[in-house]
Amino acid sequence: MSGALFPRDRAVVAPGAVHVPGWLPVERQRELVDACRDWARGPVPIRHTVLPGGGVMSVQTVCVGWHWQPYGYSRTADDVNGAPVAEFPQWLAELGREALIEAYGEHQGYSPDTALINFYDGTARMGMHQDKEERSAAPVVSLSIGDSCVFRFGNTETRGRPYTDVELASGDLFVFGGASRFAYHGVPKVLPGTADPATGMRAGRLNITLRETGLAG
């Protein structure tokens, strides 16, 4: 139902879109937080992305494997400091395959080669958008750590309705592929004060999305 908020149970939100609450244990979340802090220090530091029209995204972003900027990928962060992006580790690819097995029952040969890591403070938002810079149509794996948020998952045709609002909490897994791979999605609201300090996040939300770029080199 459009605009409905799903309960905290495993759910197929749309064909190919699966929400698994509490998938990551606290210890694994903390390991990811530590890794993300290392990546945020460089070689390409975390930053607010400047959009082509001059607007500035409210989330802060750092990339691993490939550097994303609107609207494409490169090996060097030419919009930041020109440095090569941090290498994508094999253990993160393995985590992505584990996520697909959890969501779909098989990993489908999933081989992610980039991670976009977004940090949301209490006021940050993400407008409705499609992830379509990749040449591969392999699923996107999304991991949430820290504060909960309202995640709006829509349709493939328009930024508007129909959409479903899902509460993503720390440790949640959300995978979207197949018929939902190019669905519009966004984050209209972060819920401050909901983070568990045991994860290493006292405030704010960390979102890690794994993708296959389909690019060579």
Automatic annotation (TrEMBL):
Query: Has UniProt tagged this entry with the keyword Endoplasmic reticulum?
Result: no
Domain Fe2OG dioxygenase: residue ranges = 111-214
Q: Cofactor(s) for this protein?
A: Fe(2+)
Keyword presence, Iron: yes
Q: Which residues form the signal peptide?
A: none
Query: What does the UniProt keyword field contain?
Result: Dioxygenase, Iron, Metal-binding, Oxidoreductase
Q: Tell me the GO molecular function terms.
A: dioxygenase activity
Q: What is this protein called?
A: Alpha-ketoglutarate-dependent dioxygenase AlkB
